[in-house]
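Colleagues,

For the teaching module next term, I've prepared a clean inverse folding example: a structure given as C-alpha cells, and then the sequence designed for it. I'd like students to try predicting residues themselves before seeing the answer, so please don't circulate the second half yet.
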C-alpha cells in the first residue's frame, strides 16, 4: 500500500516567512492525522530546542492514524555510532519511526564531508543498522540522489545498497536541488529497481516546477512512499505539494492513499496551515484554492450551469472545495442568474433587471470597481437593482483629522461622524491607529447603539490598490475589505480618488451587508413552517 509522508513540520518550516511554534506544530500534527497522513515528520531533535519540545508535547496527544517521525543525519565521521549526539537524540525522541539522510553525490562526500567515498558508505551502514536495532521503522533519505546518480551512477547505487544491507525499511530517492525532470525520474528509477529490492520512496523539491509531476511519475514506476508538504511549503521554491499529489493519486490514478471522507478535509487542512503560518492563502492553488473551481467568462458559466464537468476536471466537493462564479465586465446573463441563485434571489433570465444589473456592473468596473473579491458589495448591488436594498442609516457627515505634532512621534488620528437612524441623530467621535481605523471605529460606535450585532463584525483584511496609473497622488484607488463575524466572511469594495472616501464606501457596505444578512435569516426563520 502506498504511504503518504508529510514533512511540513520540518522541511516546510525551512521556507522563507514560516515559523511555527511548538503549539502550532502540535495542532498541525492533529490536523494531518485527521487527513489520514501515514507519517508525520516532526522535526530534527538534534538541531534545536523547539523540536525537542515538540517530541515531548506530542506524546500526550492521541493520534488515531498517523505515526510521528524524528529526522536526523547519519553519524558524523570519527564518531562511534552509539556515542554520536545526533543518533542519541533521534532515539531519545522515542518515535515509532526514524528518518535519517546521508550523502549520495560524490561531490558532497568529497567537498562537504571531506571524507573518502568508502567511509561515507560506512556512515550510512552503521547508522541505519544501529537505529534499526533500536527503532521499529527506519527510513533512509538518499540526499541529492538524482544529481549524485547523474554524476556517478555506480557510487550512487552503492550508497543505496549500504542502506539496504543495513535493513532500512524504505529508501527515499531525494531530488534535493529540484532540478530533475519527469523523464529523467523514470529512467533513473527503472535502473535503481534493477539493483535495489527495498521499498522505494520519492522526495521532490519544486525548483523546476516539476515536484508534483515527479512524485506522480515515480508512483507510476513503483514507488510506494511519497514525501511532501501541505501547500508545497519548503525551502527555496518549496517541496512537492501534497494538496495536489493526494487527489491526483486517488481521483486520477485510483490509489486509495486516504479515504474519501478524509479527502473532503483537504481544503480545510490547507487553509488551516496557511492560517497558522500567517500567510495569505494562494487562491490559484490547484484543488484547494479559492479560484480552483471559479468561473468568470459568460460562456464558461453558461456551460457549467448545464454540466459542471464541461469546465471542471473533478467535483470540487471531493476535496472540500466548491464551485464559484465570478462577476466582472466579462460577465453574461448566466453569471448574474448563478449569483442570484447562490444568494437566494429569484430572477428569471428574461427579466429586464438582469440586463440592468449587467449594465451597472460594466459601468462600475469601468470606474474601477471590482467584484471578484467583493461578493458582499455585489449582492447589495443586486438588491439595489431590484429596488429591495434597505438603507440602515443616513450619513449626515464625517470628518477625519490626522495630526502629527513632533517629527519623532506617530501621527494621531481622530474621526467624528454624524448619522441618522430611523429619525434619530447620533453624533460621535473615535480615535484609531490611522485615519481609516479611526473612521471605522467611529462608524461602529455610532451604529452599535442601534444594531448591537455589529459588535460581532471584525475587519480581517484591508487592501488598497492604485488603479489609474500616471496621475501620481491624484490617482484613483480601490479599497477591498474582507470582514467576518465568526460564522462567515464577506468582501466589499470602494473606489475613489480619495482613499478615505474609497475606504468609507467599503466599510459601509461591510456593515450593511452584515445587517442585510441578519435580516434575511430572520425572515427565513419566520417564513419556515412550524
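(Answer key — instructors only)
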Amino acid at each position: 500500500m502506498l504511504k503518504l509522508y508529510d514533512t511540513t513540520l520540518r522541511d516546510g518550516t525551512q521556507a522563507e516567512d514560516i515559523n511555527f511554534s511548538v503549539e502550532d506544530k502540535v495542532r498541525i500534527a492533529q490536523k494531518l492525522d485527521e487527513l489520514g497522513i501515514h507519517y508525520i515528520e516532526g522535526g530534527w531533535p538534534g538541531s534545536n530546542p523547539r523540536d525537542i519540545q515538540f517530541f515531548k508535547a506530542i506524546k500526550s496527544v492521541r493520534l488515531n492514524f498517523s505515526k510521528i517521525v524524528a529526522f536526523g543525519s547519519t553519524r558524523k565521521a570519527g564518531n562511534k555510532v552509539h556515542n554520536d549526539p545526533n543518533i542519541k537524540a533521534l532515539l531519545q525522541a522515542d518515535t515509532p519511526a526514524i528518518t535519517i539522510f546521508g550523502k549520495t553525490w560524490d561531490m558532497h562526500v568529497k567537498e562537504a564531508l571531506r571524507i573518502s567515498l568508502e567511509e561515507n558508505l560506512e556512515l550510512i551502514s552503521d547508522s541505519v543498522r544501529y537505529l534499526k536495532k533500536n527503532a521499529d521503522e527506519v527510513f533512509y533519505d538518499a540526499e541529492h540522489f538524482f544529481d549524485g546518480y547523474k554524476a556517478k551512477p555506480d557510487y550512487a547505487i552503492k550508497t543505496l545498497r549500504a542502506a539496504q544491507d543495513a535493513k532500512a525499511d524504505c529508501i527515499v530517492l531525494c531530488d534535493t536541488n529540484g532540478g530533475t525532470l519527469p523523464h529523467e525520474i523514470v529512467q533513473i528509477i527503472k535502473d535503481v529497481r534493477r539493483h535495489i529490492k527495498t521499498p522505494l520512496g520519492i522526495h521532490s523539491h519544486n525548483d523546476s516546477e516539476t515536484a508534483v509531476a515527479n512524485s506522480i511519475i515515480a508512483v507510476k514506476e513503483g514507488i510506494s512512499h511519497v514525501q511532501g508538504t501541505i501547500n508545497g511549503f519548503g525551502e527555496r521554491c518549496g517541496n512537492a505539494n501534497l494538496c495536489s499529489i493526494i487527489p491526483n493519486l486517488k481521483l486520477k490514478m485510483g490509489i486509495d492513499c486516504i479515504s474519501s471522507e478524509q479527502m473532503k478535509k483537504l481544503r480545510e487542512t490547507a487553509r488551516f496551515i496557511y492560517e497558522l503560518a500567517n500567510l495569505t492563502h494562494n487562491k490559484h492553488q490547484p484543488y484547494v484554492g479559492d479560484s480552483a473551481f471559479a468561473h468568470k467568462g459568460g460562456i464558461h458559466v453558461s456551460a457549467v450551469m448545464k454540466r459542471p464537468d464541461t469546465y471542471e476536471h473533478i467535483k470540487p466537493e471531493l476535496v472540500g472545495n466548491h464551485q464559484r462564479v465570478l462577476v466582472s465586465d466579462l460577465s453574461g446573463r448566466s453569471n448574474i442568474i448563478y449569483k442570484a441563485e447562490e444568494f437566494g434571489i429569484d430572477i428569471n433570465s428574461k427579466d429586464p433587471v438582469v440586463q440592468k444589473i449587467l449594465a451597472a456592473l460594466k459601468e462600475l468596473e469601468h470606474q474601477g470597481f471590482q467584484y471578484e473579491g467583493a461578493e458582499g458589495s455585489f449582492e447589495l448591488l443586486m438588491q439595489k437593482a431590484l429596488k429591495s436594498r434597505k438603507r440602515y442609516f443616513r450619513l449626515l457627515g464625517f470628518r477625519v483629522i490626522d495630526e502629527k505634532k513632533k517629527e519623532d512621534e506617530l501621527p494621531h488620528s481622530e474621526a467624528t461622524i454624524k448619522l441618522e437612524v430611523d429619525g434619530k441623530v447620533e453624533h460621535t467621535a473615535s480615535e484609531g491607529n490611522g485615519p481609516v481605523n479611526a473612521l471605522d471605529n467611529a462608524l461602529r460606535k455610532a451604529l452599535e447603539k442601534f444594531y448591537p450585532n455589529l459588535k460581532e463584525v471584525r475587519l480581517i483584511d484591508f487592501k488598497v490598490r492604485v488603479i489609474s496609473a500616471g496621475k501620481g497622488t491624484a490617482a484613483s484607488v480601490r479599497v477591498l475589505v474582507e470582514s467576518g463575524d465568526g460564522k462567515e466572511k464577506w468582501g466589499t469594495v470602494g473606489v475613489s480618488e480619495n482613499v478615505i472616501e474609497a475606504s468609507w464606501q467599503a466599510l459601509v457596505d461591510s456593515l450593511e451587508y452584515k445587517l442585510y444578512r441578519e435580516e434575511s435569516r430572520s425572515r427565513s426563520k419566520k417564513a419556515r413552517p412550524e
